[in-house]
Design goal:
Elements lengths: L1 H27 L8 H9 L4 H35 L1 H24 L4 H10 L4 H29 L1
């Protein structure tokens, strides 16, 4: 199984380079389940620039997150209210209003599913500027670390 994923990742990187990193990072922040980290590490292990790979991944991820935020803002509240009920929705909204920036930052920096927090940020109407800043501040160092680790490992292979 891992060999197949590795071959697929190598194919994406070899065929699409930085554009592949952007597309994977963008789509992962909206709905696709595979995180961009293995692609970033694989790309730099294969010789792409770690700095440029991290910047492209960050841009793709933040723009994908903004797309999820916007979709949540436009489409999410009625569905969330129906699934959660009015009372639970209001509780969630109060929590997100209080800790939303920290939730976005934490999800951007860690393996917590970033896409879920992006959708919630939109559903609970988090202002875009703090959302974008927290996304960028969390994603860039994460992807820099992954990119430089991939570069280091590529040099050892």
């Amino acid at each position: 199984m891992l060999e197949g994923l590795e071959a697929w990742a190598r194919g994406v990187v070899e065929s699409y380079g930085y554009a592949g990193i952007f597309l994977i990072s963008f789509s992962e922040s909206i709905a696709q389940p595979v995180p961009p980290d293995p692609f970033i590490a694989g790309a730099t292990a294969l010789g792409l620039s770690p700095l440029l790979s991290a910047l492209v991944a960050t841009l793709g991820s933040v723009l994908g997150g903004l797309t999820a935020h916007t979709l949540g803002l436009l489409l999410g509240e009625p569905v969330a209210k129906k699934l959660l009920g009015e009372r639970n929705f209001l509780k969630g909204e109060a929590l997100f209003n209080r800790f939303g920036v920290w939730a976005v930052l934490l999800a951007a920096l860690t393996p917590i599913p970033f896409k879920v927090i992006c959708w919630l940020a939109g559903i609970f109407e988090m202002p875009r500027l703090p959302f974008l800043i927290a996304s960028f501040v969390g994603r860039l160092p994460r992807f820099l670390l992954v990119a430089y680790l991939g570069d280091l490992l590529g040099g050892l292979l």
